[in-house]
Specification:
The protein is α+β, with helices and mostly antiparallel strands. It has 16 helices and 26 strands. The protein folds into three domains: about 140 residues, Sandwich (Jelly Rolls), CATH 2.60.120; about 230 residues, Spore Coat Polysaccharide Biosynthesis Protein SpsA, Chain A; about 160 residues, no CATH class. The strands form six sheets. A seven-stranded mixed sheet has the order 14-13-12-15-21-16-22, sandwiched between helices. Strands 1, 3, 4, 6, 9 and 11 form a six-stranded antiparallel sheet that branches. Strands 2-5-10-7-8 form a five-stranded antiparallel sheet, with no helix packed on it. β18 and β19 form a beta hairpin. The relative contact order is 0.10.
Length: about 600
Amino acid sequence: MQQEIERTLVQRTLFAGPHPRVAPGMYVTANPAMVRPDRTGVRMEPGAILNTNTYFGRFAASYWQRYTAITAVRLEFDHDCAPDATLRVEVKASDAGGRWRPVDAVEVTGRGRSVLDLDVRRFVDGGGLWFDATAIGGGARIAEVTWSVPRPQRNRLMSVVMCTHNRPADAISTLLTLASDSIALDLIESVYVVDQGTQRVDAHDEFPAVKDVLGPRLQYLVQPNLGGAGGFNRGIHELTRTGECDTDIVVMDDDILCEPESVVRLSAMANNAVRPVIVGAQMLLLSETYRVHMTSEWEALDELKAGRPGAGGRAGLNALKKHQDARGDAGWNGWWTALLPAEAVVAAGLSLPLFFQWDDIEFGIRARKAGFATVTLPNAGVWHADFHLKDYDDWSRYFSWRNALIVAAIHGRFDPTEVATVVAREITGHIVSMQYGLAETFLLAVRDFMSGPSILADGGRSKLGELAELRAQYPDTVRHEATEGLVGDPRIVTKGHEPKEKKLDQVMAKRVVQQVLGRVRGGRVAIPADSARWWHVGLFAEAIVTDASQTGVRIRRRDKQIAVRQFRELTQVCLELRRNAPRLAAQWQAALPELTSHENWQRLFDGD
């Protein structure tokens, strides 16, 4: 008698999310009056039809064919039908264009467990698998739905690294949600919580509950605030300091709404991949729990931009209306949640000490150059605070811009004329928008980049105070209550048609002249957040601009003296950047090994 091949779980079909705020259609679609779903199963009334062609319901067959040697996946489910009922389960598949086809079907009665083996060899360019279920003649329940494959030779557990800073309630909630799922927890060997705040996680009322449920897995570390880079790298450093690592490493933000099933799926892909790959979860929006921030993304180093959709990628996808059928590729994955295989971390090393922003991107680029691709796995996501609801005029722009220059210098073409032009356009846009504090923030970022790798000597800690002091000098950086901008009841003025791309430089030059010479509209106007573009705001002498967070407004007033000074400074900075770009690139590239070394990070952890 042939021995049954040992199998391993790679995915579960769940019927409800980890929190009531999550849109139900992310898991299953059905007539709500005819189904009663819970986390692992659903009771169906007679005639009920449910569909799992949803974000979390689909099996990402295309990615499994592309990155693993698996040729078939097994679908199993428990069924419990009323005496007069039949449960019909139909498996369907899609192709890269979204066209669907029937794959298999089974009709079951009574109580039992059914098994279907499904081919995954027709999905190279895209497509997924899912099932529909229909209760015929009576009520039925379907539950404990699993997708499994033969047990892989690589069978690593995971170590989770969470960085937190003054968000103890968020960190506790994420940890408890993750630990509440026994399947996910069984795959986790250790959980490193790196606390860099003054509001300590271990002082929270529910911390004892976290200790109880995680037990010896929990490693709670406290250190000075070194930003996200310092928090994540402390955990990675502890796991890899000997030059070896026995587990894959899952980096995870503290302020996410966690879906533990996504961690299961990341681990399954990593263990079954024919070559070690970084496996990232997609970022879903907390405000619109059905929307995907970016299905997969690449860096745009020539533009100093972090995220651009790759081939097959989509930004802002509504997962209730659109499926990710075409297989996309990724250059990196954000560290809101991502699995770093042990092999990649040992080979590529630690991140740059950038405080925060671009550290995960730079690591992804470096790992890619070392032969470790990134897979942003559809149907594996966590909910994260929306980027578009965070106002751009913020101290964090310093790190975003400085770090973009650093990464571009190390890994990009860093063409002197092109990089100076990008810098000039960006900062000029802020000046003509009367965002003088933001322009000063960007100018500091460029000057610090040009000062060389020594700017990273303290991991970024000293910059926080310096930025606060600098920005406090500019009233346009202050967020006011909305009622403060209503004095005189300023008229709302929305933007018109955006200038054509080939004319943007011409329009920018015109706005510079208008702002410097005062050829702008007098009086006070109100401008909504989505109309606050430089070519629109630059038409006015004073504007009450809604903050992107929708929590207040910024008051911007034309100041010729500041504008002229900043334009002169910008000219000098761009000339110097253009002249010294090759030397700066060589300097940063030479410093990379030392900056990312365990010795350098240990010095920072020790507070030196």
